[in-house]
Amino acid sequence: MDKQPDVVVIGGGPAGSTAATILAQHGHSVTLLEREKFPRFHIGESFMPDTYWILRRLGMVEKMKTSDFVQKYSVQFVNASGQESQPFYFFENNPHECSQTWQVLRSEFDEILLRNSESFGVDVREETRVLDVLFDGDRQTGVRIRNKDGTDETLTPKVVVDASGQSSVIAHRLKLRQTDPKLQKASVWSYFKGAKREPGKFDVGATLVLQLKDKKGWFWYIPQHNDVVSVGVVAEKTDLFRDDSSAEEIFWREVENCPAIKQRIEGSERVDVYRTTKDYTYRSTRCAGDGWVLVGDAFGFLDPIYSTGLQLAFRSGSMAADAISEAIKANDFSAAQLGKWGPDFVTGMDRIRKLVYAFYEGFNFGAFVRKYPHHKRHITDLLIGDFFKDAIDEVWEPLADVIRSEAEKREMATA
């Protein structure tokens, strides 16, 4: 029989490529199975600065520095009345080069990351379908695949890493997915060439979060290279898709509901189709079982508001890879060993979840900074992706206080 890989990774996106590369760096044999041929379209274009440390571990920082991707130094919020918050400049927290990150075109970035995995010795197989993950009870026993040439094959690795994104092969099979009743959102977006950008080196690549004037949703505004901007609206699914309007009609209806967006894209040219997604907030009840692990969107996805998707993909992929490497060396492929990283990861994910909830409850960033200027560093920590440390937890009571104050003001205004 042909020698079997130590690990099979399903999916070549950021979580899968990260796990595969780190496992190869540890000296393990890895086969990565990708259904599509790269490059391919994917949403999720904005990095958080804390991804720097994993990019450096992957050997990707110099590749990013020499790329065409737009440099990102900050994030800024625009409220329903058009008032702009002070920019949250990441370098104010840490004057290290890690405080500058990037806005990427995922088709280009994901291919660079996948080729980087190959350079470390990962056996990358594109246009390869996973037909089934085989189980004996809860224990993974193999993966049935159909190769690019149409031949079927069964791989029997020690561990399977499911990085298959929202299709989440294992989570669906084992019925592990749970939705978040507080976050039943949907999105409609497209891409525009020639839209307005903020002036100045530190603002031109900023992510903008712009609230609708009826406060029922928000727009993202993400500058990319080649003079293109990603523009999308997020709101309650039942509100966005309240009638049989087309994606284009929904998008422009909400543009009229956000003058700050309308002003920015006026005179620009749309250069892509209108795209939609919904029912994207969920989390699996566990991250691992005997011989298998879930990472990235296959484990869960939160919300696009703070651009956490890539950070959580990188982080879960790296944490899982280290636990798998320990498992191989100890010959222990139990759920306890393979999932030992899960509690710390979920704690960090739940911290940013609290900030997501706060935004939809009416949290005002400007009001918070004015009332609690000494806590701005904690908010900035959350916005840069550094939410895996306990010190952040002291921000929650002040944050709740500002939400209560803003709610009282709204009640008085309508009384």
From TrEMBL:
Q: Which InterPro entries match?
A: FAD-bd, FAD/NAD-bd_sf, Flavin-dep_Halogenase_NPB
**Which residues does the UniProt record annotate as the domain FAD-binding?**
6-328
What are the GO MF terms of this UniProt record?
FAD binding
- Entry's Pfam families? FAD_binding_3 (PF01494)
What name does UniProt use for this protein? Answer: NAD(P)/FAD-dependent oxidoreductase
Q: Which organism is it from?
A: Limnoglobus roseus
